């Protein structure tokens, strides 16, 4: 989700290792595009990883470059690919997989899996994260900074409203009931505190996928060439979201900003929020009150989409450059480093083995909320990803925003979004 993961000055990680000069004999210099708009803790972490890898691999030079958002990075990576000087390795959204394959910009990781140890490593990732990393029997992406959507709640405000501060809502009905108790209005009817906030700017489809999964609907097929936006479950999910604001008035009306939602939570303008687990470290550092983290409340069933970024290997890189990049990917995804990255950022550690490390056990003993996203993985689904992904997703986002602002009814908005997606994807089948 980043675009999604680090808010308040730090966008989330996305990166690419671009070749600054041709690899020499046994040495290579790899520049690592890391899309974050400004400096901060995340850039320091990435710098330290680069230095650590270089120390162990003196013939490979890794040079991180901080360059904007995920969206900006995919554009830069594809532009560089077309001009003939692409990054060797990129961390881009897991949902960019089909686009990168269609552009012939990447190669699969399978040819680099040569030893039993390599095979063991490839099979070590959570299956929920591999759903957005593999297609057509090949592995195109390696999970790195991955997430799910989770519910955060303010325990003080729960107590004030007469709710048990240790018990979050577990169903759609309960979520609405709690939100009604948590919404505060003055005598003139002005709202000073909202019960719940689900952001709808930037990538509303991702938060919405939590609701559609809970309604029993899947937005796209695994082949990425067909969507199901007009499914009755999708319409039901959108109606529930719209009703929170327009009918029940427990959710801010119109478009809710992704970036300001955590701040609204810190300022007690909202009692419950849906956002990425990648915000966990941010919330822990800035919430001046006890807070809880829980799996999303269930509709017909529980569920959330996964999100975040994968490593991808450039097709135009030389074999030596690809081998060097593969070595870096193996190095940074070891259980110890995956555990440390998770503790430092709030992202989900990408392998079960990371949760067995001493460092992770110590971290979660002190901060059990960090286990919520991992525990949600068994009911998680792949983030919406198709061929022509940005256009197909935009069709859905436009429909969601039309319904949330009241310009279209949910059923009409989803029918029109499906027609547009069908028009775009037809030629891929």
Automatic annotation (TrEMBL):
Question: What Pfam families is this protein classified in?
Answer: SBP_bac_8
Q: Which terms are listed as keywords in the entry?
A: Periplasm
* GO CC list: periplasmic space
Name the source's superkingdom. Bacteria
Q: Where in the cell is it found?
A: Periplasm
Q: What is its main location?
A: periplasm
SUPFAM superfamilies for this protein: Periplasmic binding protein-like II (SSF53850)
Family, as annotated:
Belongs to the bacterial solute-binding protein 1 family.
Protein's UniProt name: ABC transporter substrate-binding protein
Species of origin:
Bosea vaviloviae
């Amino acid at each position: 989700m980043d675009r999604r993961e680090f808010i308040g000055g730090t966008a989330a990680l996305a990166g690419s290792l671009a070749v600054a000069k041709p690899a020499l004999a046994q040495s290579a210099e790899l520049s690592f595009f890391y899309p974050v708009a400004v400096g901060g803790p995340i850039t320091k972490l990435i710098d330290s990883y680069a230095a650590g890898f270089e120390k162990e691999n003196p013939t490979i030079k890794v040079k991180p470059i901080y360059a904007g958002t995920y969206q900006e990075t995919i554009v830069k990576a594809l532009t560089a690919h077309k001009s003939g000087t692409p990054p060797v390795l990129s961390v881009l959204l897991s949902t960019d997989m089909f686009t990168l394959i269609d552009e012939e910009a990447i190669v699969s990781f399978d040819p680099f899996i040569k030893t039993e140890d390599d095979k063991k490593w490839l099979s070590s990732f959570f299956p929920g994260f591999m759903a957005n990393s593999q297609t057509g029997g090949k592995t195109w992406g390696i999970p790195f900074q991955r997430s799910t959507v989770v519910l955060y709640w303010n325990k003080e405000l729960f107590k004030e409203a007469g709710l048990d501060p240790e018990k979050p809502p577990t169903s759609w009905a309960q979520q609405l009931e709690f939100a009604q108790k948590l919404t505060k209005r003055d005598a003139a009817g002005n709202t000073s505190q909202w019960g719940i906030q689900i952001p709808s700017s930037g990538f509303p489809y991702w938060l919405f996928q939590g609701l559609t999964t809970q309604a029993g609907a899947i937005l796209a097929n695994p082949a990425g060439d067909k969507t199901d936006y007009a499914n009755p479950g999708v319409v039901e999910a959108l109606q529930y979201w719209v009703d929170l604001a327009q009918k029940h008035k427990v959710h801010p009306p119109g478009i809710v900003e992704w970036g300001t939602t955590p701040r609204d939570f810190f300022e007690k303008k909202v009692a419950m929020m849906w956002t990425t687990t990648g915000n966990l470290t941010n919330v822990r550092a800035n919430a001046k009150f006890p807070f809880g983290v829980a799996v999303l409340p269930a509709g017909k069933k529980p569920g959330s989409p996964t999100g975040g970024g994968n490593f991808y290997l450039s097709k135009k890189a030389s074999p030596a450059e690809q081998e060097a990049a593969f070595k870096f990917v193996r190095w940074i995804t070891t259980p110890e480093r995956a555990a440390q990255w998770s503790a430092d950022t709030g992202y989900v550690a990408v392998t079960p083995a990371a949760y067995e490390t001493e460092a992770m056990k110590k971290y979660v003993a002190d901060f059990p909320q960090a286990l919520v996203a991992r525990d949600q993985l068994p009911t998680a689904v792949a983030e919406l990803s198709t061929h022509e992904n940005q256009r197909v997703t935009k069709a859905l986002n436009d429909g969601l925003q039309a319904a949330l602002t009241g310009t279209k009814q949910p059923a009409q908005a989803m029918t029109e979004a499906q027609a547009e997606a069908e028009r775009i994807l037809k030629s891929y089948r």
